[in-house]
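User: Okay, second chain of the day. Same drill as before: sequence in, structure tokens out.
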Amino acid sequence: MSEKGFTVLIVDDDASIRRLVTHFLKKDGYEVVETTTAAEARKLLGTIKWDLAVLDRRLPDADGAVLAKEIRSASAFQAANYIIMLTAETDQAHKIEGLDLGADDYVSKPFQYGELLARVRAGKRIVDLQKQLIEANRKLEILSVTDGLTQLFNHRHFQDELARAFENATRYERPLSLAIIDLDFFKKVNDTYGHATGDVVLKHVSAIFKESSRASDVAARYGGEEFAVMMPETTLEDALSFAEKIRTRIESDPVPTDKGPVPVTVSIGVSTVPHPRIQHPKQLIEDADKSLYRAKKNGRNQVQADRRRRESGGLRRSGDGTAA
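Assistant: Same drill. Structure tokens below.
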């Protein structure tokens, strides 16, 4: 049985024990990293990915149990790890102390290598289960913040992220922009082509939002055919340029479907802080919504922002490329 990808760290100053343990572990297919002192182990722990550690209780520069405690409390400690302590001590209280400090298992010296390997295998089973649990929790966390159809963030997560970003922007007086995007006449798409094709359209434009956004941006399905993109460290002028790029790309890129290419356009409202009338995330959303409403009222397929900020807002372009 190969255990490739599962790394065992051996910390023991006895060269003969290290050599034999390494031999049997590698023969069993494990990857092995050796070190002789607690100081060397501390350096390694922050630089390598390891799964299970075999620590001697009596190291030349430290108590192995103390090292185990350090590993458990270190910020770099990974949740899916297992520690086996080697000890020549026979006192029960001594072993209890080691377990309390961070060891998961004890093997008394002198030991049979077959027993140590069996305990390593048992530790691996526990680590594998821990990894599976961590991965399952990670997937659940992603599902909890993701819109199932578009794979963008969902409304609730977007609101949470906007609240955090707004607080940071206000505290440090940094720009924060918001674009709210609505698909024009989307009901007509559903009525003409069917809801399955409508879903294809939603997924297609969502992919454009995701591709066009930076890693620091937050793109979300805000509701139905409405989307939102939050842009930290982005001035109104830059947000308008981003919105116009999105609008132009969607207009010039009909959505391929099994019913044929479906033309789509979007209307976009943009708002930015700092702004003297915006003191709360809800007000930022309301301001962007007003601009979106104006874009739709003025004929759709255009980008709009607060008229009173025209001088500092850069260009606001309509669908035919003229300034709005």
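The first strand starts at residue 7 and ends at 11.

User: Thanks, on to the next one.
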